[in-house]
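Q: Structure tokens for this one, please.
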Amino acid sequence: MQFVDGLFGVRDIDLLEIAILLPDGGEIGFADDLLLKPDRLSSEEWASI
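A: Here is the predicted structure, written as tokens:
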């Protein structure tokens, strides 16, 4: 993987390389009806998350 010199620091590049390998944690374990709900979540729905 190549980056433009000076655009990212070494630590940033290391973190990006690790993050690319991780799945989308925001979707793990959440029911589709909550993820796709067009309205605001209720108190009970928020509690389930």
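A few notes: Residues 10-48 form one domain. The two ends are 36 Å apart (CA to CA).
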